[in-house]
Specification:
The protein is an alpha+beta fold and 345 residues long. The chain has nine helices and 18 strands. The chain is elongated.
Length: 345
């Protein structure tokens, strides 16, 4: 049981060319910025957009020749799209009724699903009176009511406030673990992807730029977008042994020898900032200029222009002691042991 898809959709000025392979019982997250082609890919899998080329095969059966209503697919849309005049029970039963199931059987199935989602007490409630988390669970129950083999989730937590997202995210993870089909989740939120997915596919400009387990992607980002998502600085250069000449200027010394094009990743918290050139154990230091600062919880994140340009996490005490303001001249330093270097090709 698996999904094998090569989704090619030409929309004039923008095209999508994305390949996916997802085993049954697992969750794949399509992660990327707005306009990357994630939702276009999802809609093509659902049959809501025709393929220009490629194929969609689920459990060995070709879906690309089927109409949307014939596919064994359940969809949870970003805004849930619950029918406002129907109760929660009738919303969940809707797909079954559309497929010819009699009213009593469809409603019994809906009641069983609502009980599973701890919503039995809301069966007769219309969507306007449901909380965001309750509406999300009703939408998921509706998608599961038709016994899909492929479950598609389009930004399923985007409509929730920050406080509700944490609880609903955990609940959704438990529900997806119980689903033995294939799940494809579209999101631009890295936390949703890291918590919910077994495998990530990062899409930028309609193309796959990186894929792997959440841990692998977070450990070794391959584009600036992915690096920003996981909170790392990402530099590209050319390695000769443990020496890396950076593409944007400057150089770094690493502990791991490489040859050829490489990426160098480092945490903002690994970079130290001082007012004078350091003479400690750090094997890498360079002058820079503070360009901007912003608060991030109990720390401040500064952009320091080099080369290389890096993000640096600082305590409020350090900012006050060094009298750091935009335009201030500083020295940056990082130990070679704090650098992760890996091939860029």
């Amino acid at each position: 049981m698996s999904l094998d898809a090569h989704v090619v959709v030409d929309r004039g000025a923008f095209s999508v060319d994305v390949s996916l392979s997802v085993p049954g019982g697992s969750v794949l997250a399509l992660l990327g910025p707005n306009g990357a082609g994630k939702t276009t890919t999802l809609r093509a899998l659902a049959g809501l957009l025709p393929l220009t080329a490629g194929h969609i095969t689920l459990d060995g059966t070709a879906l690309d020749g089927m109409a949307a209503e014939q596919r064994p697919v359940g969809v949870v849309f970003q805004d849930y799209l619950l029918f406002p005049t129907l109760s929660a029970r009738d919303n969940v039963a809707f797909g079954l009724r559309a497929r010819g199931v009699d009213r009593a059987t469809a409603r019994a199935t809906a009641d069983a699903l609502l009980a599973r989602f701890e919503l039995s007490g809301h069966a007769d409630v219309r969507p306007a009176r449901l909380s965001g988390g309750q509406a999300q669970r009703v939408a998921l129950a509706r998608a599961l009511a038709v016994s899909p083999r492929l479950l598609l989730l389009d930004e399923p937590l985007a409509a929730l406030d920050a406080g509700t997202r944490m609880t609903v995210r955990t609940d959704l993870r438990h529900q997806l673990e119980a689903f033995d089909g294939v799940t494809v989740l579209v999101t631009h939120d890295p936390l949703d992807a890291l918590v919910l997915a077994d495998h990530l596919v990062v899409v930028e400009g309609g193309r796959v730029v990186q894929s792997g387990s959440p841990a692998d992607v977070a450990r070794a980002p391959r584009t600036p977008y992915v690096a920003r998502l996981v909170g790392l600085n990402l530099l590209r250069g050319h390695a000769s042994g443990t020496h890396v000449d950076l593409d944007g200027g400057g150089s770094l010394t690493t502990t791991e020898a490489q040859q050829g094009p490489v990426y160098v990743a480092l945490r903002p918290s690994a970079v130290t900032v001082s007012g004078e050139q350091p003479h400690g154990s750090a094997r890498n230091s360079w002058p820079g200029t503070v360009r901007s600062m912003e608060a991030r919880g109990d720390t401040l994140r500064a952009m320091v222009a080099g080369p290389p340009d890096v993000l640096v996490d600082l305590t409020a005490a350090a900012v006050a002691e060094l009298r750091l303001v935009p335009g201030a001249a500083v020295w940056c330093a990082v130990k070679a042991t704090e650098l992760d270097v890996y091939p860029a090709s």
